[in-house]
What does this fold into?
Amino acid sequence: MTRTWTATDNCNNNSQCVQTITVRDTKAPVIAGCPANVTVECDAVPNPATPTATDNCDSQVSITYNQDKANGNCTDSYVLTRTWTATDNCNNNSQCVQTITVRDTKAPVIAGCPANVTVECDAVPNPATPTATDNCDSQVSITYNQDKANGNCTDSYVLTRTWTATDNCNNNSQCVQTITVRDTKAPVIAGCPANVTVECDAVPNPATPTATDNCDSQVSITYNQDKANGNCTDSYVLTRTWIATDNCNNNSQCVQTITVRDTKAPVIAGCPANVTVECDAVPNPAITTATDNCDSQVSITYNQDKANGNCTDSYVLTRTWTATDNCNNNSQCVQTITVRDTKAPVIAGCPANVTVECDAVPNPATPTATDNCDSQVSITYNQDKANGNCTDSYVLTRTWTATDNCNNNSQCVQTITVRDTKAPVIAGCPANVTVECDAVPNPATPTATDNCDSQVSITYNQDKANGNCTDSYVLTRTWTATDNCNNNSQCVQTITVRDTKAPVIAGCPANVTVECDAVPNPATPTATDNCDSQVSITYNQDKANGNCTDSYVLTRTWTATDNCNNNSQCVQTITVRDTKAPVIAGCPANVTVECDAVPNPATPTATDNCDSQVSITYNQDKANGNCTDSYVLTRTWTATDNCNNNSQCVQTITVRDTKAPVIAGCPANVTVECDAVPNPATPTATDNCDSQVSITYNQDKANGNCTDSYVLTRTWTATDNCNNNSQCVQTITVRDTKAPVIAGCPANVTVECDAVPNPATPTATDNCDSQVSITYNQDKANGNCTDSYVLTRTWTATDNCNNNSQCVQTITVRDTKAPVIAGCPANVTVECDAVPNPATPTATDNCDSQVSITYNQDKANGNCTDSYVLTRTWTATDNCNNNSQCVQTITVRDTKAPVIAVVQRM
It folds into this structure.
């Protein structure tokens, strides 16, 4: 700096004084507010301070800031060195340095740690899923372990569950839960049969109650039966006991008392019905049989009594059969046979009535007589003569009377009409027959001839007499032939119907040999009978045990009996065996596993076609490999059923250590918009052996076809102590596919032709491009008249990557308003000499500036020449044919009288 002082006198003489001042700046700025060095937890790193600086010369000292990071021995342990440099205008500077030592000494905090519990063996809770938070590590790893200490039985033990939470710097905390498992509940027996009192033939087979237990899936059930005899062979008491015991010897009992008695009397089959028979048809004693619900050898006694009637061949027989079982229950079958003689002797050789020529009268015949009971029937003879209307016309009546021991009699009468006519003769009369009930013949068709009458009429009648069962009876068929003169003859046939055929059984099942789970249900054979449509079938089954529980023989018998006690049998033998081994389910597959993942022994189950309680035994063998954690386990489960059929399930577990680290939190490949590129993820890695897996990170960028289109490839590589490594690669495809968003786009409108709006000024924003360009265009489509059309206005917004969006407004312009007429004259009533000239109204329109007006006048006559009505109409029409009218009505009348003018005479 140079300072000059100049001294000048009145005459401009002057002298100078010069001072040179050299100014320099050598002092650095002074920094205030420099933060002290600190040691902090990883979640308490302070924000950078904002120290200030003052300088002896510079009033606006600039401060620059820099931070360096030196990594420590784990992710959340490091040192930050923060430096602020204050520099003045002359580059004099001073520094403020802060060292922040960051460390992680806090263990994670576990939440949701379950409490210790004592539970039943069927209520062991699933492992909890506690969570852990850490002051610095957002992805705290939690490991889980469970130890089991056996108790005094299978379902009594203690589980110790431990969860360990470890952060990035190996600070850890534990959550321990002790679960005391016990089994205090006895099995529950289902299907326990109720106490019953039954007949001796209805003793139920032992029930097969089942037992379920809260823990033991294979509850054993033992069975015992005691018998206490009663007062006869088939009267006693059975006490059946089932005891269910679980793995821990908790047990429960099911007891059934069955009181067996025999109160049913034997059933007699083949008991004959009471009958009334002729003296020559007394049946032989029936052969009855008896069955009992319990006694297989029922004894039957027989007795017959006779009571005489009123003649030799009339009496009553009483036959009694008595059946008695082991317990003296008895039943009787009583048949009463009423024997009578109601049949008159049958006369044979009785001469037919004849009409003969007077010279051909025959000699008296010598008929004979037979009787169903009387072997010496007496016959008497008598003849009467009745004269006719002439000598050779008469009637001879010849009578033979046959009488048996009981005074039953029959007559044989021959009328010999001595004339020249003969009675009819019957031919083809069927013989008496004895047939089965399904073979009753149709009625015959005998014929009759007469010496005079060629059309002899025959009438037919049938009577039925019931026998000793439904299908046993006697039919009497009678045909009567009559000629023109009422001479007639008869033909009689007796058909004795009987049922001797047993029913035929259909559907009788064949003998079979089956597995114990395939015993067929009893068949339902049917029976048909030649006469009985409702044949009854009874069923019985016997069982013979074999050499094991599920090996035995069933004998099934069906007996079909018809109305007349004819019967037949169908017998099926079913040989039941058990040859199928149990089927094991849940057999685990062979596996190769890491040394830290050896599975617990599986619990396969076994089902058998017959045995519901299949036993399973388990064995494990171990073969060592080339190191401690390399070996082979062979696990064998053997299932055996009641008949010693067995099957095996074998699992081979190969144990090895070959796993690379597992990366967690690897971000998925994404395609994102240019304004949504995510920050790099922070995946973590765990290894089955290495607890400190290192992760490296790299990012590559490949440009695309426009400013905001490119691809980022991010790679994280996790490497364990043994150089097994795995990568996590994320490809982020960045694109700009979003078109700009237009705001302020006007809505479509329909407007009158005089209200078309000015173009709007919409704006556009884009997710990436801050300077979006907008172009504008308008198209016009004409309508059906000058002032009717459509405007299409389009605004197009385009970003850096040529994505565009449009805003389109359609303005429909129309003209719907009619012109407005002004100066329309009012309606008037005028004298005929004062009719006004037509007015000249004008019209304006909202769109049309040159509205045309047309004029018209109509006249309606009144009651005289000068009385009428004028209607004047003005019509205004615009460009689009909208119109309005102005109408004036002028009523013209003549109300004034003529005016007489006086004419003076000259």
Remarks:
- Residues 433 and 495 are 5 Å apart (CA to CA).
- The radius of gyration is 67 Å.
- The chain has no helices and 68 strands.
